[in-house]
Amino acid sequence: MNDETLSAVDVRDAVKRYGDFTALKTISLSIKDNEFFTLLGPSGCGKTTLLRMIAGFEDVTEGAIFLYGDEIENLPPHQRPVNTVFQNYALFPQMTILDNVAFGVEMRGNSKAEARRRAGEMLELVQLSQFSSRKPSQLSGGQQQRVALARALAPEPKVLLLDEPLSALDLKLRKAMQLELKHLQRETGITFIFVTHDQEEALTMSDRIAVMSAGELQQLGAPTDIYERPHNMFVADFIGETNLLEVSVDKIAQGRATCHLGGGHELTCNQVDDIGVGAKVHMSIRPERLFMSDIPAEAESLKGTVKENIFAGTDITTIVALAEGPDFIVRTSNSDRGNKRIFEPGTEMYVNMEMGAGRLLVD
Amino acid sequence: MATPGNDIKSYPGFRFITIACLIILYAPLVVVTIYSFNASKSITVWEGLSLHWYADVFTGPDSGKFKLAARNSFVIAIIAASVSTAIATLAATAMVRGGQFKLRTVSFGLISLPLMVPEIVTAVATLIFFNAIGFDRGLMTILVAHIAFCIPFAYLPISARMQGIEDTYEQAAMDLYATKRQAFTKILMPLMMPGIISGFLLAFIVSLDDFIITNFVKGAGVETLPTAIFGSVKQGIKPNIMAISTMLLGLSIVMVTISYFVSKTDNTK
């Protein structure tokens, strides 16, 4: 077998049950070599369970896990060439930063001197060399996070597992760490498997995302796929903000579906999949794909009244009530204020969009 | 919140009861300590400050008996504390890290039962047990009995410490290529150390001070310090007993204080 075709991690029909409760329902996925892969989902969806199964902290009820072609699901954690960055960092509190980072290298059979040298290098990489003789409790949350990262990378694992490592940091630091992690992944060329419930974080950092819910894989794809072409209601609703409308399909012609929603409003979709005429389905339209105007657009247009404008820094969210129809959320970026209009509450206007801005979803 | 209205100090009689309790608890100890420095042969009449009775303990007519008893006491206390601490450490590891195994609650009950059972019952039961198996009474029976009743004292501080240690540390160690045993010795043990030392000291002092059980299971002619003191008091209280008691008291205070501070220390800062 050739290394380039080999998956970093291959999860095959993995099932995890705790007594009567099934945490993971037959998951299969392949994580590529040198990929920044994210397991994304709400809490309790099984993403951390899957990560812990790869690390070796949870046994696999059924199925198999391969790491670069080797079957690992029966190996104890210390025999798996993967390392974990824990959510609470789990830095050894009685050891100095340097000894923490050196620990894994030494346990892997290197001399103490070699382990320390390697730890020094890693601390340099995360720019914490000056703290090497301190104890973990003397460091800030962000610094501890970087030590945890250095410690997990020091033994040169084949795959790095990250269990919501940024969730304890404040927003600004989290954003900075997102970029740093992404850079670190590119520099080291190590496959990263990142667990998060934060969809924005997942979109920012990942090469590919596996969206999970209730122990099942909902969709696997690149961030743009997941965002632009969600497969189902759950993904559309969980990733980003969207207008989810109940519609019924009236007509299908030339690969376009004409649908109507309450109040006699009509919308057209470019994608049909296997939906037939008369089907009652949901349509998802991203709020940033909409714009408001006092004249209807040629393509698609809905008449409504502005209920409220919400200012949120980079953009303005407008809630629009359609005449006898559902409410719409319209997002206008502040940088677009030149070409796009914001209307005062109470104003009648048109919500316009390009042809095919909406997507039909099978539930 | 201690607002003036419900501050405990404002309850009627609070001050009086507190002071009464302190006096009842500590006045005898203070009296014994003071009179151990008395120059007089009498235990009630003060005749001036002197270290006479301390000298008497080490060089007087009873010194041989007390020295032997003290040596027995220390040897037994050190061995009993070491063995019971080792057992308690393993028990705490199983109880705190063993997950929700069957009989976990029962196990905890069994470990701490000796703390609830009246000591005289344990003493009689232990004596009957030794007789039943034909174990000749002597230093060895004292040692075995001490190991057994010291376990819960060693167990409590160790398990309390361990409950405060998150299990992700061991997981992190194993994730970083340490075997289960290495994770225990290199990561968990150092973190537990304050609890272990504290447990050891507590077990040591409990063993050193024990009278009831020791008195039952000791063989004829074998004495520990408490039984020797008791034997001596039966023939009338001499001030040298006060000197020995004061020294034991001092030792207990030192050990308990060390135990307290060690259990408070955080080797993680």
From TrEMBL, chain A:
Q: Sum up the protein's function in the record's words.
A: Part of the ABC transporter complex PotABCD involved in spermidine/putrescine import. Responsible for energy coupling to the transport system.
Keyword list, A-Z: ATP-binding, Cell membrane, Hydrolase, Membrane, Nucleotide-binding, Translocase, Transport
> Subunit info?
The complex is composed of two ATP-binding proteins (PotA), two transmembrane proteins (PotB and PotC) and a solute-binding protein (PotD).
Protein name in UniProt: Spermidine/putrescine import ATP-binding protein PotA
| Keyword Secreted in record | no
Q: Which gene encodes it?
A: potA_2
Q: Note the PROSITE patterns from the entry.
A: ABC_TRANSPORTER_1 (PS00211), ABC_TRANSPORTER_2 (PS50893)
Give the protein family. Answer: Belongs to the ABC transporter superfamily. Spermidine/putrescine importer (TC 3.A.1.11.1) family.
First-tier enzyme category under EC: translocase
**CDD domains noted in UniProt:** ABC_PotA_N (cd03300)
Entry's Gene Ontology cellular component terms: ATP-binding cassette (ABC) transporter complex
Please, which domain of life does this record's source organism belong to? Bacteria
Q: Which reaction does it catalyse?
A: ATP + H2O + polyamine-[polyamine-binding protein]Side 1 = ADP + phosphate + polyamineSide 2 + [polyamine-binding protein]Side 1
Supply the InterPro entries for this chain.
Answer: AAA+_ATPase (IPR003593), ABC_SmlMolc_Importer (IPR050093), ABC_transporter-like_ATP-bd (IPR003439), ABC_transporter-like_CS (IPR017871), Mo/tungstate-bd_C_term_dom (IPR008995), P-loop_NTPase (IPR027417), PotA-like (IPR005893), PotA_ATP-bd (IPR017879)
Q: Identify one Pfam family in the record.
A: TOBE_2
Q: Which organism is it from?
A: Shimia thalassica
EC nos: 7.6.2.11
Tell me one GO molecular function of this protein. ATP binding
Keyword Hydrolase in the entry? The reply is yes
Q: Which intervals hold domain ABC transporter?
A: 9-239
TrEMBL record, chain B:
Any one GO cellular component localisation term in the record = plasma membrane
Q: How does it sit in the membrane?
A: Multi-pass membrane protein
Sorted alphabetically, which InterPro entries does this protein's record hold? Bact_Polyamine_Transport, MetI-like, MetI-like_sf
Keyword GTP-binding annotated: no
Alphabetized, the UniProt keywords read: Cell inner membrane, Cell membrane, Membrane, Transmembrane, Transmembrane helix, Transport
Q: What is its main location?
A: membrane
Question: Quick check: keyword Iron in the entry?
Answer: no
Pinpoint the ABC transmembrane type-1 domain residues: 70-259
Q: Name one Pfam family in it.
A: BPD_transp_1
The transmembrane segments are 12-37, 74-96, 108-133, 139-158, 187-208, 241-262
Subcellular location(s): the record lists: Cell inner membrane; Cell membrane
Q: Which GO terms describe its biological process?
A: transmembrane transport
Among PROSITE patterns, the record links this protein to: ABC_TM1
The entry sums up its family as follows: Belongs to the binding-protein-dependent transport system permease family. CysTW subfamily.
What does the UniProt function comment say about this protein?
Answer: Required for the activity of the bacterial periplasmic transport system of putrescine and spermidine.
Under what name is this protein listed? Spermidine/putrescine transport system permease protein PotC
> Source species, please?
Shimia thalassica
From the broadest rank down, the organism's phylogenetic lineage runs: Bacteria, Pseudomonadati, Pseudomonadota, Alphaproteobacteria, Rhodobacterales
- Gene that this polypeptide is encoded by: ydcV_2
